[in-house]
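Why do we care about 3D structure at all? Because function follows from shape, and shape follows, mostly, from sequence. That is the central idea of this module. The next example makes it concrete: a single protein chain, its amino acid sequence, and then its structure expressed as tokens.
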Amino acid sequence: MTKRYTQTQQVIDTMRKHGGYSTLGNLYRLVDTSHWKTKTPQETIRRIVQESKDMFRIQPGLWALKEYHDILMVKFSLNEKESMDNVLFTHSYYQGMVVEIGRMKEYMTYVPAQDQHKLFIDRPLVDVCDTIEIPPFSYPILTNRAKTVDVIWFNDRDMPNSMFEVEHSTDIQNSIVKYCDLQDFHCKFTIIAPQNRHAQYDKVMERTALRDMANRVYFASYEDIVTQYTTMCKLTSVNKI
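And the structure:
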């Protein structure tokens, strides 16, 4: 009797074909769910990776097969206790996610020169973003200031739509001061940081000198970014059907 090819096995086989690991968003795109008898295949995939005894979570939004555990710990220079502090999965990881969200929203994406060769999982950011040169959208003194922003989304007129600074452990105030220098542009400014830094962000934003920026700067936790990333991947995969 032929053994039934389950949805779980299909997800596992897909991950094996791609090195034994994948973002949840990529699984939404890569797994062929056309024959699945469900109206919510993405929810099924999410349930599989969360509940399967054959998988483990490397980082929010990034899953792997247990059979690849030792290989991936070496590949990503991780150990069980320090994975959340590994620079590969803090600053550049969330930069890459924000870039991919921007591209799915059809913005042109930019990361600064000093970060372009850092890795988003296993790809340099220069291979993920759309441009390595910032568009000359204003006077040099302002574009030079913007060049240091962690991620920028540009609209089809080459004007900045959104700017993002990832603050894992550095001073949040420095990024907000940078945003103050760029406040004359019709642009959304976001601080991305661990949820436990939200109180620090609130304290900085309460300062009188930043009163004009109170409704211009937003806080997004790492979990918020992962949720938006997986939601955008889900919408993109649905639109391709």
